[in-house]
Amino acid sequence: MKPIHKAPPFDVELGATLTALGDLLNPTLTPDMISGMRGAPLTSPIEEQLAGHAVRHVERTIPGPEGAPDLIVSIFSRIDHVPGGPGIYHTHGGGMVIGDRFLGADMLIEWVELMDAVAVSVEYRLAPENPDPAPVGDCYAGLVWTAEHAEELGFDPERLIIAGASAGGGLAAGVALMARDKGGPALAGQVLICPMLDDRNETVSSYQIDGFGLWDRTSNDTGWDALLGHRRKTADVSIYAAPARATDLSNLPPAFIDAATAEVFRDEVVAYASAIWAVGGVAELHVWAGGFHGFDMIVPQAALSIQAREVRTKWVRRILGA
Predict the structure, then answer these.
(1) What's the Rg (C-alpha) of the chain?
(2) How many CA atoms lie within 13 A of 229 on its CB side?
């Protein structure tokens, strides 16, 4: 559905920052850029992110899906951790093609400190070298391991949520569907931050964000093409790869879902929340006026970013009773 109107304007503070960053934030990712992007730092080293926080970081190697390579996970917990609190399982962003388990770790560290939670972030395989179902299969295997090791890791398995942003949000939604259909692990909630849900890329917002902002429609084509190849936009796309394809969103854990008005994913995110409500499910939707994709990660000091992060954290605390 091609729009006849241009995209909503950016928030003044966010727009000014985006302009100041200029060429440092290319809105468009094409296939030839993937290799170079993987070599560029997308976030601060984990040692810098942990500096000043009383949080312990441990790496573990765990089994991957049957017949697939082992996976590395990072486990975060407070130095003075008391067992029995909540657990958070994290799937990172990066359009299915870039990024690592430390992308978004600042949010995990904040939640670990605030709630004495144990957070596990998984290093899943990336497309196009590892197309669907590798990424979502890896993420599900990591969730199973996390839930099965709740006592060892020191959290209450009945207070385990899944969280992710962008591609990580889409993977979190896919894993939640998979957990429902496979009979577990049980999830207390799903945090879908500006999630990448729909391979078709045919919403109004997907056309409005083209050549500007962050992660525009060409970038979205790049990510989905890498993940799905010739199956993209056909009937052969799994609901676990593209959760927007699911026709039944019943019996899912409560969802926190957000997006920005000036981002590609806006309309598919709103539609996903509506589909949950349509079957009597629980979803809290926030659409941040003037935000661009991932604005609170790129400009965390902006007023809108602070508000978005506070609202998200309050929801997590409420759902986890922490």
Answers:
(1) 18
(2) 7
Q: What is the pLDDT of residues 109-156, one digit of tens each?
A: 999 999 999 999 999 999 999 999 999 999 999 999 999 999 999 999
**Residue 220: both structure tokens together:** 């979205």
Residue type, 50: L
pLDDT at site 3: 65
Tell me: the pLDDT tens digits for 140-198? 999 999 999 999 999 999 999 999 999 999 999 999 999 999 999 999 999 999 999 99
β-bridge pairing 155-165 and 85-91: parallel
Q: What is the DSSP letter of 124?
A: P
CB 290 within 8 A of CB 10: yes
CB 275 within 8 A of CB 198: no
Model's pTM, two decimal places?
0.97
Distance CA 114, CA 170 (A): 25
C-alpha distance across the termini of the chain, in Å: 43
Q: Using CA atoms, how far apart are residues 187 and 155, in angstroms rounded to an integer?
A: 13
CA dist., res. 16 & res. 117, Å (int): 36
How does DSSP classify residue 68? Answer: S
Per 3-state DSSP, the chain is made up of helix, strand and coil in percentages (nearest 5) of 40, 20, 40
Across 33-58, average pLDDT: 92
3-state secondary structure of 55: strand
Question: Hey, which bits of the chain come out as E strands?
Answer: 55-62, 71-78, 85-91, 118-123, 155-165, 189-193, 255-260, 283-288
Q: Token pair for residue 282?
A: 């629980």
